[in-house]
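FAQ: What does a ligand-bound record look like?

Like this one, built around zinc ion:
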Amino acid sequence: MKKFKRIKAYNKKYREELEESLKIINPYLIDAFTKYYGEEYKDKITDVISNIMYTFFISEPFLKVLNCYGSDISKHDKRVCKYYLKYLHACQMDELDKCIICSSLEKEDLLESDFIDCLKTNFSFYTIVSDDEEKSFYHAIFLSIFSISLKIIIHEINHAFMTEVVAVTKNEWITPSLFIYPECEELFNDYITNKIISKYDGIIPYALKKFRYVHKYEFYFSLIKKFYDAFEDVIKESIMIKNFNLLWEYAGKEDFYLFCSLIQKYYLQDGFTEEEVANLEELVLRMRVHASSIIPEDFDSYINELESLGYRVRKLGKDL
Ligand SMILES: [Zn+2]
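The answer part, i.e. the structure of the complex:
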């Protein structure tokens, strides 16, 4: 691998640039998430954001896409990108850890088969890593070089908040999803990400604005906007107190599940008609009616039940 010794120099430069950038944005990130979710969650937000384990890696699928379609990246970056691709091809399976530019995770964790699969197929992603005794877990974010931006970082961090961990073992972690289906969850996560970015009021280092991509998710925001506007407070509350039942009960489970499954379907079928949007809007209206029909006493007893289980519940101010 001698002929690829320049990779080392590139990696070192990236690592320093990215690590420095993360340090700079950390307080502004905490501030933006706090402004979005509410001052009462500041400690929790600070704790999660400050303890995230970051890994920077070289993602072959992403480099390939960039190599073919990345018309707005500089010639120099394109050359570096091709160089990385050649380097990855020269790597053998057992050298997969060479894709890792740097990580705050243990090397043994990184070489686990689940991670290897993810590194080979994903762009950037969020996951959970448990410690050896399976007593605690860490939020881990994997960022693929050439794609890292403030938006990607906020998107991945928000996954950490949107993930309710029910159980963790060394091999798997069980996490129900607030929006039931993975793509539906992604759409909402990305929509919320944009809201958090609008609250970000700080420096954005060059390394985090050099590459900016518009994800396919953005084309589907019109499908979820009405639901989000109607249930914004409950969504935030459910995420922060990690009780997804709150939103499900509020919107009415059956209609909510139907809504999520339709979103998932329209996203996967790569498009939607006006009629389909109208159907969704009707469904949102029905869920709003359901939410407003919840008898305050019923809801109070539900909240009491939550509080007796140790959840901190804030009464919602917004009239649905
Ligand atoms: Zn995501």
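Follow-up question: can I read anything off the structure? Yes, for example: The chain has 13 helices and six strands.
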